[in-house]
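Appendix B: a complete holo record

For completeness, this appendix reproduces one full record from the ligand-bound portion of the collection. The bound molecule is flavin-adenine dinucleotide. The inputs are the chain sequence and the ligand SMILES; the output is the full three-dimensional arrangement of the complex, encoded as C-alpha cells. No fields have been trimmed.
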Amino acid sequence: MNQVPEILPHDVHNATLVSNVHPPDWQNPEPAPRYNLVVIGAGTAGLVTAAGAAGLGAKVALVERHLLGGDCLNVGCVPSKCLIRSSRVYADIKDAGKFGLRVSGGVEVDFPAVMERMRRLRAQISFHDSAKRFQDLGVDVFLGEGRFAGPGAVEVGGRTLRYKRAVIATGTRPVHPATPGLAEAGFLTNETVFSLTERPRRLAVIGGGPIGCELAQAFRRLGCEVRLFHSASHILNREDGDAAEILQQSFIRDGIRLILDCKTKRVEKKTGEKVIHFECQGNEEGVAVDEILVGVGRAPNVEGLNLESVGVNYDKREGVAVSDRLQTTNPCIYAAGDICLKYKFTHTADATARIVIQNALFGGRKKQNSLTIPWCTYTDPEIAHVGMYEREAREKGIAVDTFMRPLSDVDRAIADGEEEGFVKVHVRKGTDEILGATIVARHAGEMISEMTLAMVGHLGLRTLSNVIHAYPTQAEAIKQVSDAYNRTRLTPFVKGLFSRWLAWRR
Ligand SMILES: Cc1cc2nc3c(=O)[nH]c(=O)nc-3n(C[C@H](O)[C@H](O)[C@H](O)COP(=O)(O)OP(=O)(O)OC[C@H]3O[C@@H](n4cnc5c(N)ncnc54)[C@H](O)[C@@H]3O)c2cc1C
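The structure of the chain with flavin-adenine dinucleotide bound, as generated:
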C-alpha cells in the first residue's frame, strides 16, 4: 500500500510537491528479474546514483519511503535558502538609509507570505526530483520502506528486488536531544520548521552549528525574537576563528541573543509558552519562548534496513562503515551521501554517488579521499571554506604561510557596502601550493569555487595572480591575496638586482 506522507500545511504548493515526489496514485512497477543496481533512499545521493547508472544503460531500481529529493529538496537546502533570501531582502530594505534610499512607511514582514513563497518555489523545483521524471529516465521507482532480505535481495512493499549491486543512500535525520521535558513540551526540527505558517514571537534555537546559525539569523530577520543556545563558547566553533567572530558580531547586531557555553537542563511546558532552564558558568536561569527549534546534529538512518543480515557494519552515530572506495563490509553493497560521510552536504552526496557508479558498476577504483570538498554556511555574511584550516595543518605538522586580504580593501565590496569579510589562503610554507582557504563575504559561496578549482587543478597562488579578474568584483580579493604572495618572492637580493639593472637602463 502506498502510504502518502502528510506535508503541512495542506495547500496547492504542497499538493504539487507531493504529486511530484510521492505521487498518491503511484503504482510500483513489476520488478525486473535482476537489477544491476538497487538504490535505497532517493535523496541527492540516491537520485544521482540512479539517474547516472540508468543513463549508462544499467537496470536500476530506486526505493524511497518518504519524499524523493530527500532532505535537500524537502526540508533542507531548498526551503532554508528560500527563507534566507526573504530575510536578506528584509535586512537590505531596513538598511536602505545607508544607500541613500528612503523607504516610506517602513517595511513589514508578512510571515505567512514568506513561507508560502518558499513552498511555491520548493514545489516548482520538485519536478527535477519527481518520480515521473525518474521513470522517464528508465529507473524503476518503488515507493515504500526498503530493507535487505538476505544476500542479493531488497524487499519493498511485499516485492523482492534482486540485485547484483546495492547502494545504501538513506541519509540522516535530526538528533532529538534527551533534555528532560523537551519532548513533552514539543519542539521543531528541520523536518517540521518549514511547515510553520504563523511566526513564533519568541524562538529558541538550540545549536550554533551551520543549520542553527542559518535558521537563527533568517528567523530573527523575519521578525522573531531569537535566542541561540550553544554549548561551545563561540558559534560555528569548528570554522576559522576570525570568520566565526565576524559572524558572531553580525548576529549581535541583528539582535540575536547568544547564550554560549551553556547546557540546557530541562524544559517546562507552561500555558502558552515553554521555559528552557539552562546552566551558564555555574548559574541556572530560565527563559520563556513560544517555540524551540533544535539543530544539534544528525543521526544516520540505519535502523530497519536489516544490515546485519547482509554483513554491513555500521555505527548508530557514524552511520555505515565504508572503504575509501565507498564499499561497505559487504563487497556487493556500496553507500553514498550523508549515511556514510563526515562531510554531510548535497554536493558531497552528489560527488560520492558518481564515485559509486564507477566503482559498483564498472569495477572502478575511484576514492573518496581524492575529493576536494568546499562548503558554505549561508548566513550574512556567508562563510565558505575549502581544504585545511590553519589548526589542522598545525596538527599534521605542516608549516604554512597565510595570506589574507580584508574586503575593506576591495573596491567592489566598498561600493556594495559589503566590506565585512576577508579572503584567507594557507599555502605550504615557502611555496605557492594552496592547502586551504576561508572566505567571508556576502556571496562567499560563489567565490570559494575559484579556490576549489585552483586546488583541484593544482594551480598555485602564482597562477591565480595571472588570472585577470573583471573589475570591480569582490573576487578581486583573491587576486589581491595572490599578489601579496608574489610580493614575498621579491627578496632583498632580487630587488637589489632589479634596482641595479633599472639604474643601468636610465
Ligand atoms: C536545514 C538544512 C539545510 C541544509 N542546507 C544545505 C546547503 O545549503 N547545502 C548543502 O550542500 N547541504 C545542505 N544540507 C545538507 C543536505 O541536505 C544533505 O547533505 C543531503 O540532503 C544529503 O543527501 P542524501 O541523499 O545523502 O540523504 P537524504 O537527503 O537524507 O536522503 C535520504 C533518503 O533516504 C530515504 N530513506 C531512508 N531510509 C529508507 C528506507 N529504509 N527505505 C527507503 N527510503 C529510505 C529518506 O526518506 C530520504 O529521502 C542541509 C541540511 C539541512 C537539514
